């Protein structure tokens, strides 16, 4: 029996409810340094590795819980859209991929909005979930983004969006690419209403999302060491036939070259957003 198995067996006898847990839920292997971390310890540390500070990917539920004032969150029902408009099939049917993603995440699609407050100031927060088909942008994501904009205008609140995506959803073809201009028009609606649009870039944000609403914010914040790119590193290197810097397409590289405004640790993100909203909205955002 390995030392790891011994620890797990010991814990099952001293931790209430631990016997119902399995090794996959009790421990988490950090994707940054490979350290095995207790899942509970990781959750208490906002899903940031206590050893190397690697920021793990998290979904809408965790984001809302970390950011919004306790008891203020009101998750909006995800809008419906046409499913599988092209009757697409690759190695699996698109309809089957959607069913699997919904079962795994408990969400209708890859973008979820919630209304609430941060430090008592009204805000609408949209979160893109990379766990749902890589956070890919299809019609449902476009509809949810517009829903968030409309909710922000209705409540006279800023719209804060957390991006995490591999890009446009290929199973919807040109219909997925149409969400780029649609989201751009929606952002202009926010500006016409005199409301700010704040983007928090998380790992990874790429492709059509990076070319659209991810880089159209009034303020751009990024989590540390997030991969941010329009196209892949290897594609660029093979095209220009040059070796790119090691930190290329990271949050820190973007900050150094003036493409984003700040890189903020997850532990400081709530306070930073509260300050930014206060500066941009003042008393207008007060609940």
Task: Walk me through the topology.
Elements: H1 3-14, H2 23-26, E1 27-29, E2 36-38, H3 39-44, H4 60-67, E3 74-75, H5 94-105, E4 111-118, E5 121-128, H6 139-155, E6 159-165, H7 174-177, H8 179-192, E7 197-206, H9 207-210, E8 219-222, E9 228-229, H10 233-240, H11 251-256, E10 262-263, H12 266-281
Parallel strand pairs: 5-6, 6-7, 7-8, 7-9, 8-10
Antiparallel strand pairs: 1-2, 3-4, 4-5
Helix pairs in contact: 6-8
Write up what this structure looks like.
The structure is a single chain. By secondary structure, the chain is of the alpha/beta class. It has two domains: 1-56, no CATH class; 58-285, 2-enoyl-CoA Hydratase, Chain A, domain 1. The chain has twelve helices and ten strands. The chain has helices spanning 3-14, 23-26, 39-44, 60-67, 94-105, 139-155, 174-177, 179-192, 207-210, 233-240, 251-256, 266-281; strands at residues 27-29, 36-38, 74-75, 111-118, 121-128, 159-165, 197-206, 219-222, 228-229, 262-263. Strands 3, 4, 5, 6, 7, 8, 9 and 10 form an eight-stranded mixed β-sheet that branches. A two-stranded antiparallel ribbon has the order 1-2. A hairpin with a 2-residue loop joins strand 4 (111-118) and strand 5. Helix 6 (139-155) runs parallel beside helix 8 (179-192). The termini are far apart. Residues 10-20 have low confidence and may be disordered.
